[in-house]
Specification:
Blueprint (H helix, E strand, L loop, with lengths): L1 E16 L4 H6 L2 E16 L3 E5 L6 H8 L7 E6 L8 H7 E5 L11 H11 L4 H15 L14 H13 L5 E5 L7 H18 L2 E5 L3 H7 L2 E6 L2 E7 H8 L2 E8 L16 E5 L2 E7 L5 H9 L4 E8 L2 H11 L4
Parallel strand pairs: 3-7, 3-8, 5-6, 6-7
Antiparallel strand pairs: 1-2, 1-4, 8-9, 10-12, 10-13, 11-12
Length: 328
């Protein structure tokens, strides 16, 4: 079942242009159109985990806001669970969970549990379901010890875990998560990634996640949609994207004895090499070269002590997509 459908969606903003004088800016103001999203189309099936990736200003958050009914489209059609998310906001909200990493739905001076009680009534969550979800997710997220503390006393990591718990209480069919791990330490990020995998596996919830931390996408998502300058650049399985664009590879080779200068080491083919003492670090494109050839070339000249091969990670992949200017 297709739970999310976008067809040729555009969203533009009308912004004022600074005039030659202050009076002109006030009384004869001119405007220009900024296209945040341009002709985007994609579909997401029930139970999919999808990462929405792009640089700042690419249109990710605007897309999420249109999908959640915060914004309407300038043109094109959006359907979430068969409804228009803007005109059917009330019914749509009951079926989705939304988290904007830099905005809070928790009341600042109240403990998270007090906000949870309000959400229980807003979403009309049965008491048994509420208690079951509260206990289950509080244990997974490790929030039991601070749910009765005022939000203003919580650390950023504690607050974000409480925010995620609040989003999950009503068993949403779709989770829209915009930068849910922003500013968090490594341990908390890992907890959140684990939780999202558990939710998807146990409840079948569809997850649409945006993040600048590509490890979030790599850990949680099976599919990746890349938006660049408001346009859809790539839409494919994460593994396929890594295979297609992740062709950069690095070999680190430790040899016996220090290499005093670049002249002490030369390769018979093109590769970007660095030398640090007795460590040789070579980067190359796997389309043109492979690790075995590099290792053999070094072995012909030096005695090898240790070898490490590092494939491109998801950050390298996305950087390569932007560099190549991938087009649909």
């Amino acid at each position: 079942m297709k739970e999310i459908v976008l067809e040729k969606v555009c969203r533009s903003y009308r912004v004022p242009v600074k005039g030659s004088s202050f009076l002109e800016y006030l009384f004869r103001r001119k405007y220009k159109q900024i296209e945040a999203v341009r002709d985007i189309s994609f579909e997401i099936n029930a139970g999919e985990t999808v990462g929405l990736v792009g640089p700042n200003g690419a249109g990710k958050s605007t897309t999420i806001k249109m999908l959640t009914g915060v914004l309407t489209t300038s043109s094109g059609n959006i359907r979430v669970l068969g409804r228009d998310p803007f005109s059917d906001r009330k019914e749509n909200t009951r079926q989705i969970g939304v988290l904007f990493g830099q905005r809070s739905q928790l009341w600042w001076d109240l403990p998270p549990e007090d906000t949870f009680q309000v959400l229980k009534r807003v979403y009309k969550i049965p008491e048994t379901v509420y208690q079951e979800n509260l206990q289950k997710y509080a244990e997974i997220l490790g929030t039991q010890d601070f749910l009765r503390q005022p939000v203003r006393q919580l650390s950023l990591g504690q607050r974000m875990r409480a925010e995620i718990l609040a989003v999950l209480l009503h068993n949403p069919k779709i989770l829209f998560l915009d930068e849910p791990t922003i500013g968090l330490d490594v341990a908390v990020k890992k907890q959140i990634r684990n939780l999202l995998r558990v939710i998807n596996r146990e409840t079948g919830a569809t997850i649409l996640l945006t993040s600048h931390d590509m490890r979030d996408i790599d850990s949680v998502c099976d599919r990746m949609i890349v938006i660049d300058h408001g346009k859809l650049a790539v839409d494919d399985a994460v593994e396929n994207v890594k295979k297609k664009y992740g062709t950069k590879e690095t070999v680190e080779i430790e040899v016996e004895g220090d290499l005093n200068s670049p002249e002490d080491f030369q390769l018979p083919f093109r590769a970007a090499c660095e030398i640090e003492g007795n460590l040789i670090r070579c980067s190359y494109d796997r389309k043109e070269l492979n690790a075995a050839a590099v290792i053999q070339a070094v072995m012909d000249r030096h005695k090898i002590m240790d070898v490490k091969v590092k494939e491109a990670d998801i950050d390298d992949v996305v950087e390569e997509i932007y560099k190549e200017g991938a087009e649909i």
